[in-house]
Design brief:
single chain; mainly alpha; 0% strand; elongated
Length: 241
């Protein structure tokens, strides 16, 4: 069953979905739907930047929300929740409203399946996939709500199929270097030699909280664990790789 989830999660990889997202933008430009192309570029691009910023913040500085196990938005989930509903909307231009709604809902369900795979494979926590899903769905909603695409701009199914086959052929057997790029960027900006990682991030926090609890019980001043600021337990400690 794990292998099945691994295959599903691959459908959310940036190396597979980003080129398809670019093709959608290209088609909107060709169809002279400049307003829609601008909305898609801003919404999709902004969602990508938010994901990258959240990952850089944690990897470089350890900034996260430990109470909900959040270390950055799930990129796979965000891309799936943004792109699949956007494709469904663009492909059903001119169709009945009920068909468009059904297509978009189906696309969201498929994106949710990819989100589930990230949790099952322990690649992300529940909070990270929920956040990624909401972020991606918001980007898709911007296109659906404001682009007003009709039959004249309907994205041809053959073009989508060609894009999927081409992107799949290029990405098969290769993992996109997106994570490596993000880690490199985070370390470059923070000036640290090692990235923050989830497990030591939690372990150090548990040690620090245990120390504070013991100190409070005996009525003495609490001393944080080495490298941890008692006033900012969520972020200020090194968690070497």
């Amino acid at each position: 069953m794990t292998n099945s989830w691994a295959e599903i999660t691959r459908l959310g990889e940036s190396g597979f979905l980003l080129p398809i997202g670019l093709i959608l933008w290209f088609w909107l430009m060709v169809a002279r739907c400049y307003r829609a192309a601008m909305i898609w570029a801003i919404a999709f691009g902004s969602a990508i930047l938010v994901v990258v910023a959240s990952k850089v913040a944690f990897i470089g500085w350890g900034i996260g929300i430990r109470s909900i196990d959040f270390t950055g938005f799930s990129g796979h989930t965000m891309l799936a929740a943004a792109l699949f509903p956007a494709l469904a909307y663009a492909m059903t231009g001119g169709a009945r409203q009920s068909l468009r709604i059904a297509a978009i809902a189906s696309a969201l369900l498929f994106a949710a399946l990819i989100a589930i795979s990230r949790v099952v494979l322990e690649a992300h926590s529940l909070s990270e996939v929920v956040g990624g899903f909401a972020l991606g769905a918001l980007a898709a909603l911007c296109l659906i709500r404001y682009a007003r695409l009709g039959a004249q701009a309907a994205l041809p199914a053959w073009l989508v199929l060609l894009a999927v086959l081409a992107s799949g052929a290029i990405s098969v057997g290769h993992r996109a270097p997106s994570h490596h790029i993000i880690v490199t960027l985070a370390l470059k900006l923070s000036g640290h030699e090692h990235p923050y990682r989830r497990i030591p991030w939690h372990q150090h926090a548990d040690d620090a909280m245990a120390g504070l609890t013991r100190a409070k019980a005996v009525g003495v001043a609490a001393l944080p664990a080495p490298g941890i600021s008692a006033g900012a337990l969520d972020v200020e400690f090194r968690a070497p790789a």
